[in-house]
Amino acid sequence: MMSEARLMNILRAPVISEKSSAAQQDKNTLVFKVLKDATKDEIKAAVETLFNVKVEAVRTLNFQGKVRRTARGFGKRSDWKKAYVTLPEGTQLDIEDASQQTNKESK
Question: Domain 4-88 classified CATH 3.30.70.330?
Answer without folding.
Answer: yes
